[in-house]
Structure formats: C-alpha cells, structure tokens
C-alpha cells in the first residue's frame, strides 16, 4: 500500500467514525455542547490508535531494545552471513551464544587469548572439566587466576558455529564468559563498523 492510498484509507476511517458517533448522538438527542465534547474525545481516541498503528514497527523496535537492556540481553542480529552486534550500555560487545545447545551470554574480548567460561556456565552446559591436568595461569583485570581446561563440542553464535573449541573454566571469572581470539581467529573476518561489531564466518 503506497502513502497516498494509506492516507485515503485513514481519511475514510475518520469519516466513518465521525458519522457513527454523530448518528449515535443525534439518536440520543445529546445537547450540542456535550455532543461536541464527545465527538472531540472520540476523535482524540481514534487519532491515538491510528498513531500507534502507523508506528507499530518503530514502537516494537524500541520496546525490544528497552526490554533487552533491562534483561541484559545482547543486541544482536543476523545480516546475510554475518552477525552484527551493537555495544551494550557499558560500551562492550556482548553476544548470546549456545554451548552444546545451552544459552549463555559472552563478552567479546580480542585481548583474551582463549575463550573462557565461568564454572557455573560450564556446569550448566555439561562440560567435562579436566581437574587432574595442571591448572592454567591467566592474567585478568583482577590479577592472576587459575583455570581448568575443557572443550566445547559446538559453540553457536547466530550463523557462526565452532566445534571442538578449547576453553578455560574458572570460578574466579565472576560469572562472566568471554569469547577470545581462539574463536575470533577462526572467522573469515571480524571488525567494528559504525559502532557495530561484525562477525563473519
């Protein structure tokens, strides 16, 4: 439907509404002043509904953005073969991924050598943690910590899939999961463009 036709339909709807309201008022013999007030009230209600209907897509997008921010859900979308990720409220890039089918939230950190999971996330995903192997020593913003080695059979981020991905697991990560360079290096490209991070498998 083009813009002219859309405007004509709105005009028809408004005319029909006015005729219906006017007919109802005449049938009830409502005083002129009261009738005008009721007509104006109905016109305002109709205009409000019309505005909401006309901008339903834009309002839906805003509502989803607000809901994602409140819920802490990353703002990501698939565009062609790429995954586009908007920065979070903290300025970092967060993404929602599936670990062997289990959903988890990750911080994308190109400064991290290896992908890292909190112990809670690893346990929820059913990963096997090699507790007999010597622990890994990792430098983090909170200092040096120890981590255990594990592996993800399949990690999926939108159109991106990585199999047999080595990961570090530690309770010292504070519940934060990190996607590091051992995953980013498997992609054909990753970059930041117009504020968005774009990952291409």
TrEMBL record:
Residue intervals passing through the bilayer: 37-55
Pfam families: gag-asp_proteas
PROSITE patterns registered for this protein in UniProt: ASP_PROTEASE
GO molecular function, one term: aspartic-type endopeptidase activity
Highest taxon above the source species: Bacteria
InterPro entries (UniProt xref): Aspartic_peptidase_AS, Clan_AA_Asp_peptidase_C, Peptidase_aspartic_dom_sf, Retropepsin-like_bacterial
Gene Ontology annotations of biological process type: proteolysis
Keywords, alphabetical: Hydrolase, Membrane, Protease, Transmembrane, Transmembrane helix
Protein name per its UniProtKB record: Aspartyl protease family protein
Biological source species: Sphingobium fontiphilum
